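Preliminary data (for renewal application), NAP complex.
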Amino acid sequence: MSKIIMKTPLVEMDGDEMTRVLWKMIKEQLIEPYVDLKTEYYDLGLVHRNETDDQVTVDSAEATKKYGVAVKCATITPNAQRVEEYKLKEMWKSPNGTIRAILDGTVFRKPIIVKGITPFIPTWTKPITIARHAYGDIYKNTELKVPEGAKAELVVTDRDGNETRALIHDFKNSAGIVQGVHNLDNSIASFARSCFNFALDAKQSLWFAAKDTISKTYDHRFKDIFAEIFEAEYKEKFAEAGIEYFYTLIDDAVARVIKSEGGFIWACKNYDGDVMSDMLATAYGSLGLMTSVLVSPDGNYEYEAAHGTVTRHYYKWLKGEKTSTNPIATIFAWSGALRKRGELDNIPELMRYADNLEKASIQTIEDGIMTGDMAALSKLENKKSVYSEEFLAAIAERLDRLMR
Ligand code: NAP
Ligand code: MG
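Predicted structure:
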């Protein structure tokens, strides 16, 4: 069997701990036997980030802009304990945050659905992909405690020094609290375009919701920007693709999501996305089955697993113990990136390989062979919990059959 030849390199961002261990095994056992893998490799492992003063993270994001597609392993976001553990020069920022800021992207999280692992909402037979606007609102706020007798006002000073004032509240009878939040038309527009592009790509309808009936200026601005961009740039493309853009109030959206069968993309404001993505991840089952892709408004893609580096398993692995860590979301990050590379470079064999890799993975779980986290959720009678090595070998066996 001759290997599939790639044209443009894939940006490969290696990572930390247990996912770094799985990363190598996935490449060696599932990808390299079939694909003449062409990657531009960036080691985002914490040791190398520290050595390069985190320049490697910036370089990897710039490379993603150049080549258009990246695949990323989970990475440690340092805290005080990690600074000590890795003797870091600094508490480096979250690589995901750095990459997202450079690409100006939106993160889409999508669950992988397999037979035997039913979501908590049994009518969800298709995945719901959630997108969170990761800028502004309460995440970039200014807050104050207000003493009794004080008055709080909103003041905007324009370029020429003219002030516009609005009363927030007169705290005559009680002390209280006050908060200032903002968002930017540019950021909302980028978010909207990423969502519309992703919906076209996935051929799934897009839902967006806010609370514009209560927040007549702030939330309404989100609604208007989405509507304007849709009308001007996407309406016809959506009609051609047979999908729709649907706006509703956030409470109505939540009710409809619960009653739906899935199969759409749900764009959320920052806070809604924070809360609802955790709700969806839990409702669909295991974190090990949640994929994530960062999409920039100008069409660059970075694929990864939604989970972290699975530290607890890594410490066991370091002691020489075997672990049953779920590699599925990381495998799907690779298949997503390779499929996208195939699509952009017009390499149908590469796209077919990506499909087969996903099929083999799902088939393995549906045959009852799975890691512990999935076995704890699966309703299959013949299920068997295995170590990561055995699980990968079972996938490799099925992939081999599909590739013949
Ligand atoms: P985590 O790595 O996602 O793991 C939390 C727990 O979830 C694990 O201990 C494990 O539970 C379970 N789990 C997650 N993924 C699993 C998988 N693939 N297979 C089996 N079980 C899985 O989150 P964390 O422990 O909070 O964070 C660890 C490190 O990852 C941190 O340094 C954090 O900064 C980093 N992180 C990185 C990213 C990213 O790069 N995108 C995202 C989140 C966190 P049991 O222990 O019960 O088996
Ligand atoms: Mg959250």
